[in-house]
Amino acid sequence: MSSPKVIVQIAIAGARIFGKAFLAAGRQAIQNAKYRPPGAGGTDVAGVGNATSGSLTDRLTREHRMTADEARLILNVKKDDPIERIVQNYEHLFKANSPPEKPPKPASGKTPIPTHSHYLQSKVVRAKERLEAELQAPAAEENAASASATESSAASSSSTTPPPPSS
After folding, report:
1. Beta carbons of 63 and 46 less than 8 angstroms apart
2. What is the maximal distance between C-alpha atoms in the chain?
3. Cα separation of 26 and 33, whole Å?
4. Taking the CB of the first residue and of the last residue of the chain, which one, N or C, has fewer CB atoms within 10 A?
5. In sequence order, what are the residues at sequence separation of 6 or more whose Cβ sits closer than 8 angstroms to the Cβ of residue 69?
């Protein structure tokens, strides 16, 4: 055989091998993309997808896109801590993640490393809002229950009088 013919055959064989490997890798990537291990969280944010009942806690979780436990972890408070402790931790974390009042001049032309995080600051704000909503919810629920009870008692007292006799 001539050497150019052998070189072409080697190139064709190499291209076939490479093509088959590339095809197999593509198929495996598609299988990996479709596979979801059991118990793995997908794009569910903070268990919001699991908040499907009509309860007040689930409504607040969907509304604020954060569970109460996640909010407590962010603000580093316990379930029974008073509101003052929540506000104190909120103020500290908000201030720690705020940009400085006046950025210092960079020394020797280097870009200063940012010491604040808008993302963390927004998470701190959302956590405080979620915990405040959790604390205000029972009071709002009681007010709604007492208002509906008052309306129903007023409606029942007006409907208990018999109509006048017709002749």
Report:
1. no
2. 124
3. 11
4. C
5. none
